[in-house]
Amino acid sequence: MGHWDTQHGEIILPSAEFAAVRQAVQKATHEHQTKVFDETQAFWKGLTRKEQTDPAAYTAALRRYTDAKHKELYAYQDRSSWNRPAKPPFAEEFIDDVEWRLGLPRSGKPARVLKSDLPFPTNRTTSFPAGEGSVSFDKESSTVRWSTSENRGATERAHASVAGSAFFDRLQRVKWTRHTGGVIMGNNEYAADEGQGPSCHVAYGPIGAATEPSRCQEYTDSKGNRVTRGDLTRIQQELWDAQRKLQSRMAKAVGGAGRGKTTAASNRGSFASYQHAEPTFRL
User: Fold this and answer.
1) Is 240 within a domain?
2) What is the pLDDT of residue 248?
3) Separation CA 114–CA 158 (nearest Å)
4) pLDDT tens string 257-279
5) DSSP 14-54
6) pLDDT digits over 220-233, tens only?
7) Which of 237, 246, 248 shows the shortest CA–CA distance to 274?
8) What pLDDT, on the 0 to 100 scale, is given for residue 196?
9) Is residue 118 in some structural domain?
10) 242 lies in a domain?
């Protein structure tokens, strides 16, 4: 028995990077759908005339095909060994999509899969399926939203999907500008049972560095400067120091308020609002 997990978050992309990130996801998705379509054509060409016309014969042929494909898949190991190659990337997603396209509707007749039957992305596509998740782009706000379902292993499958892999791989090459980036939050069944809410799983760019430096990925800014793990660790320490100072000042203010009668003059400024100090490292 496993546990459910989920992720969601929005990332602001630099305007100069938005099209490139979206194009990377579109290209990977298009290539995947092309492979799926080609496989459906090869399957159809391999059928006998009876299998192409009789639903029962077609269904039996499809069952033999899928059984053989799954047997090949199970023969692979997740890691390469001296006598077995590694499982091809996206193999499970490929087989699932091919099987879905070849399946007959109830009381349906066998027919060749048409290219128009597949969801090939276009330049107008804004949302791309990613396993049990999706990658959605909003050009007006230059943002991209990552979201998965709430299911056992949902985030792992979404990250390992064609669109998910292309998206996160391309994010690593973004040259971030000020006020861009973001965080991806997540939760799982164990944390929820403990009464915990969503927490940051990963962060990107200057926004991620300013809000969740310990979870932020190393990145390069638009001027070619590299923000390293050491830089992010220093920012995190500055945030912790600022929080401790704030807590100390608030404790002193509360303690002072509890010592007898005070005048308005002595209280002036004692309860002024405090904000988290900005890190000294320029993002």
Assistant:
1) no
2) 87
3) 27
4) 766 554 544 444 443 333 334 44
5) PHHHHHHHHHHHHHHHHHHHHHHHHHHHHHHHTS-HHHHH-
6) 999 999 999 999 99
7) 246
8) 87
9) yes
10) no
| Run of H or E including 200 | strand 199-204
- The residue count for the chain: 283
| Pairwise CA distance, residues 260 & 139, whole Å | 59
Contact 163, 129 (CB under 8 A): yes
CA-to-CA separations, 245 to 73, 136, 233, 255, 280, in angstroms, rounded: 57, 40, 19, 15, 15
Q: Strand, coil or helix: what is 181? A: strand
The pair of three-digit structure tokens given for residue 171, joined into one six-digit string: 């994010």
Q: Is residue 147 domain-resident? A: yes
Domain with 135, as residue range(s), is 4-227
Q: What is the pLDDT of residues 76-134, one digit of tens each?
A: 655 555 566 667 789 999 999 999 999 998 778 999 999 999 999 999 999 999 999 99
Task: Tell me the two tokens of residue 170.
Answer: 């391309």
CA distance 2 to 153: 8
Query: Rounded to an integer, what distance in angstroms lies between the CA atom of residue 97 and that of residue 230?
Result: 43
Domain tally, the chain: 1
